[in-house]
Amino acid sequence: MFAKIKKDKVACVDRIVEVINENNITGYEIAKNTSISEVAAIRIIKGSTSNPNDSTLSAIVDYLGVAYSISQDWLISGKGSKKVEVVPDIEKFDRLSEEEKSRKIEETALFVAFQEERLMKHPVFSNIVKRRVYELMLEMTKEKRV
Predict the structure, then answer these.
(1) DSSP state letters, the chain
(2) Is residue 121 a contact partner of residue 127, using CB atoms and an 8 Å limit?
(3) Is residue 131 part of a domain?
(4) Nearest 5 degrees, angle CA 116-CA 114-CA 9?
(5) What average pLDDT does this structure show over 127-134?
(6) Distance between CA atoms of 78 and 132, rounded to whole angstroms?
(7) For 34, phi and psi rounded to 5 degrees?
(8) Is 16 inside any structural domain?
(9) pLDDT category of residue 30 using cuts at 50, 70 and 90
(10) Domain span holding position 45
């Protein structure tokens, strides 16, 4: 991701700030959910940092992708649509390159990781997780018996 950010860092920062402003995201929220300090986040939001480091931008891009369904590709390059398709079309997914599939899986995993508490309150998601845990426990029990 760093190589892509380096290409046009100024435009990437502009898109990040645009999303932050549209969603009223605070420096505190960014700091709370990433490895970035609140001061560093505020400097980026206010434009007082002329050249934030790549790992800082990468962390913000990851967070915005996960927490706000913003396309990481759009944030980095400005290409594609701004919002991530929330419900994937399996046929579209199958046509993606292995790299693109890996990226989508990573985005989904990060989303679940950041939203775990909220997702577990949703009955459909909670039931899926509980069912899968139950299935895994049954498999483990069967393995121990053998």
Answers:
(1) -HHHHHHTHHHHHHHHHHHHHHTT--HHHHHHHSSS-HHHHHHHHHT--SS--HHHHHHHHHHHHHHH-B-HHHHHHS-S-SBPPSS--HHHHHHS-HHHHHHHHHHHHHHHHHHHHHHHTSHHHHHHHHHHHHHHHHHHHHHHH-
(2) no
(3) no
(4) 165
(5) 81
(6) 38
(7) -140, -175
(8) yes
(9) very high
(10) 2-84
Look at the pTM and tell me if it is higher than 0.85.
no
Number of compact structural domains in the chain: 1
Place of tokens 């899968």: 132
User: Could you read off the pLDDT of 86-117 as tens digits, one per residue?
Assistant: 666 778 888 888 988 888 888 888 888 888 88
Q: Which residues pair with 83 in a beta bridge?
A: 70
Domain with residue 10: its CATH number is 1.10.260.40
Work out the number of other CB atoms within 10 angstroms of the CB of residue 17: 16
Distance from C-alpha of 17 to C-alpha of 12, rounded to nearest angstrom: 9
Residue 106 burial by Cβ neighbours in a 10 Å radius (0-12, 13-18, 19+): middle
